[in-house]
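debug: dumping io for the single-chain case to check the tokenizer round-trip. Nothing else runs in this session.
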Amino acid sequence: MKYQSTRNGCPEQSFEQVLLEGLAPDGGLFVPVSLPSFEIEEIQSWADLSYQDLALKVITPFVGSDIPAPELRTIIYDSYDGFYHSDVAPLIMLDENEYVLELFHGPTLAFKDFALQVLGRLLDYVLKKNGQRVAILGATSGDTGSAAIEGCRHSDQVDIFILHPLNRVSEVQRRQMTTVHGENVFNLAVEGNFDDCQRLVKAAFNDQSFLPTQCRLAAVNSINWARIMMQMVYYFSSVLKLTRGKSKVSFSVPTGNFGDVYAGYLAKKMGLPIDQLVVATNSNDILHRFISKNDYSASKLKKTFSPSMDILVSSNFERYLFDLFDRDGDVLSDFMQRSLSGKLSVSERQWQTVRAMFSSASVTDDQTCRVISEIFKRHEMLLDPHTAIGLDAGRRCHNGSNSPMVTLATAHPVKFGEAVEAAGQKAPDLPGHLGNLLEREERYQTLPNDLYAVQDFVVQNLRLCSK
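debug: decoded output
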């Protein structure tokens, strides 16, 4: 398996190379040169596999020979050993043809665990094999940071620096990061929003000359291909559980950075019988406006009850646009440059292609609270605000087909007590392994929204790379 950049400005890379580089040297994102394709009979034959063995079937073509099969199997099994539900990703039925896929049974209570517990171990394996050490630099809108820290904090091969927007993540999300006191863990609260954090990370990757000799950055954000690869698996798992692959299933995906729904898009292209893919956004609705109105223009960021989706620049959308523009890196580069200012759209033909693949809806805070309240009263199930947005969007967009609609439940409601209480419900207690989280000592550094300040902090605190 070889990978290319969406900007077409660098040579093709191996899986091991894209795992370590994250962002392509030309500023693009890595995608497979060609996708594997599975016949429906082969997919159906996986219906009785464990989640771990299913993951091996789905991801092995993307890894190729870079990691031997026995070692890859050990990495996968070790990664999901820390999940708290025997099904790993259980499906819960609400009503006829309406389901919730619970993706919050990992160690940090969010769907990011599905990829980042694996990514941390993949990095550790490759770095040890090659005798390398790296500095991980990532940005988080809430959940990526804690999952990345949990996946990487035990590695002797990395120092990890995570940027989060000051006062724009929930208290539980923040404390899950800032109360981890490993010698290789550094949390930075940036005086800005998530898009600012993401911009700083990309800028640092684009020019790494500030680093000491023989030191390099590695990515854990969803710009890293391995994140997308691991998120494909629960789409396969859901379809096989519901229909054993014999009929189509629809998905509603709470979406900020587009990575989660992009994984579903790839699964569909690989042969998985998926009907609808619903892009569910909050009031920060650039993706909904693009899909519904062909309007790809930024607006002012709004702070909402669903902070993990308070994003204006969906970095993974570039990967989909690369396909939409017939894999023409020059056209994509021009579009991404023009997207920085003014109203932007694509051709009518391209827009119709988008609408044939995705449906979308934008959900306000008031609507989010109503859904949380309704579901608790009817089913005694407490939803986090992102999941509530997904459920509402799925209901609005359902095309009337008989296919089940599965909403991805991306986080445990305990992370978003403010939204739960605004919906008139009692915030749940922290689960046992996090029971004393609010009493633990925090450790983080507040920095201005400035690239040089971030670069200087990284250089001053590196343990693993010598000048």
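debug: round-trip ok. DSSP finds 19 helices and 13 strands in the chain.
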